[in-house]
Design a protein that fits this description.
The protein is of the alpha/beta class and 440 residues long. It has 2 domains: 169 residues, Aspartate Aminotransferase, domain 1 (Alpha-Beta Complex), CATH 3.90.1150.10; 262 residues, Type I PLP-dependent aspartate aminotransferase-like (Major domain) (Aspartate Aminotransferase, domain 2). It has 13 helices and 16 strands. Strand 7, helix 8 and strand 8 form a beta-alpha-beta unit. The longest helix has 22 residues. The chain is globular.
């Protein structure tokens, strides 16, 4: 019995029927490569859960963590520490606009929940608008805010959540085409807000580019009318950059592509490149000033954990010293050409889209009708094509996320063109197999 098989006796694995699992055991990782216990290597085509932006095993980050280990690992969050101060200043320098005060959390889900708590505290309102094709985390509150089908089994975690339809140009819910659509997707958000009563809405919460529900990229002006509506009605705009932040899309934060200022910006994942668990909420100055006079009803045992903050400081230095954000932006045309080549060569690929090094291939059973290869929210036998393709990815030595018809591609931001060439050559063979699954 392997260690991976033995671990199933004592370890629960997420989002899975436990009896069906056959986990691979990873013993070490370096750069863009995972080494398995059986000696095989896998290319990390999705930066694990789209979080290891700096790549695995970076000495500069490890050295920053080691140095902090010798000084201080943890004190209660009511104390000031050097790493917490240094990281808060480093984050504030890189966030857009005047998002200058930071509340640290353990990860993305609790950062989302704390941002919503702040919005409700600051506005005195309860309702939060968010999108159907969204995922904001796995805790009860974050799942309630998500439209992702994973929230269905949990029922209602928190009240006041209202979902709206998405700016999903490939599958427009309004049967329109951009740019002649008049941005009805944005107008829809405002219409729903009007029905709910703007005076009741604390916040509008959105991923700037949708993550695990399909890398859905809104039209360029989508957020501008939403921002104007928020300003008119005292609604706070919360932007969830947990997945898209810290260079993933070729900018420090993806919302910068849309030239819009959030009121609260939520981050995690790339904040430490997953070298330590850490999340954060950045707050605009005028809102932070109001919290000087209000009790901040937010608290976590590990808020501002010294070791995690040291990992964050070292990670942000690594991004800057190695020009990671700039090189990601420079690689984007090469990357998008690779995605488009997969779409052109393979009938199973209906759409290929991305920004920076954040991409998805959307798989279809029939390109003209855009019928999904694995329908959204499928279960049971309908998942058979997904499982077969996932097995072929492993055989090809590729680790990446595959959800229904979404094949996510988001390598570490240190990836080279040569590594991309090799990985896409392997992916080409996997998609040949996926083509064979299409109905004839």
């Amino acid at each position: 019995m392997t260690q991976a098989e033995a671990a199933k006796q004592h370890v629960f694995y997420p989002w899975s029927k436990q009896a069906d699992l056959h986990p691979l055991e990873v013993v070490r990782a370096s750069g863009c490569t995972l080494e398995l216990a059986d000696g095989r290597e896998m290319f990390d085509f999705s930066s694990q859960l789209i979080c290891v932006n700096a790549g695995h095993g970076q000495k500069a980050i490890l050295d920053g963590i080691r140095a902090q280990l010798e000084k201080l690992t943890y004190v209660a969050p009511s104390f000031a520490t050097g790493p917490k101060l240094e990281l808060s200043k480093a984050v504030a320098r890189r966030t857009p606009g005047d998002l200058n005060k930071i509340f640290f959390t353990n990860g993305g889900a609790d950062a989302i929940e704390n941002a919503v708590k702040m919005a409700r505290r600051l506005t005195g309102r309860r309702k939060v608008l968010t999108r159907y094709r969204s995922y904001h985390g796995g805790t009860y509150g974050a799942l309630s805010l998500s439209g992702d089908p994973r929230h269905h089994a949990s029922g209602h975690g928190i009240d006041g959540v209202v979902h709206v339809l998405d700016p999903y140009c490939y599958r427009c819910p309004f049967k329109l085409e951009y740019p002649g659509c008049g941005l009805h997707c944005a107008e829809h958000v405002l219409q729903v807000a009007a029905y709910e009563g703007p005076e009741n809405i604390a916040a509008i919460l959105m991923e700037p580019i949708t993550g695990t529900n399909g890398v859905i990229i809104p039209p360029a002006d989508y957020y501008k009318s939403i921002r104007e509506f928020c300003d008119q009605h005292g609604i706070l705009l919360i932007i969830d950059e947990v997945m898209t932040g810290f260079g993933r899309t070729g900018k420090w934060f993806a919302i910068e592509h849309f030239d819009v200022q959030p009121d609260l910006l939520v981050m995690a994942k790339g904040l430490t490149s997953a070298y330590a668990p850490l999340g954060a909420v950045a707050v605009r100055d005028h809102l932070a000033d109001r919290l000087d006079e209000l009790v901040l009803d937010n608290g976590l045992t590990y808020s501002g954990h010294a070791l995690a903050c040291a990992a964050g400081v070292a990670t942000l230095k690594f991004y800057e010293e190695h020009g990671i954000i700039e090189r990601t932006a420079a690689l984007e045309p090469y990357w998008l050409a690779k995605l488009e080549a997969m779409r052109e060569r393979h009938p199973c690929v209906g759409d290929a889209r991305g920004r920076g090094l954040f991409g998805v291939l959307e798989l279809v059973a029939e390109r003209e009708s855009r019928r999904e290869l694995v329908p959204w929210n499928s279960k049971g036998d309908a998942l058979a094509p997904q499982k077969k393709i996932a097995a072929k990815l492993v055989e090809a030595g590729l680790f990446t996320l595959l959800r229904w018809s979404f094949l996510f591609l988001a390598p570490p931001l240190i990836v080279t063109e040569q590594q991309l060439d090799t990985a896409f050559d392997k992916l080409d063979g996997v998609l040949d197999f996926a083509d064979s699954l299409l109905p004839h």
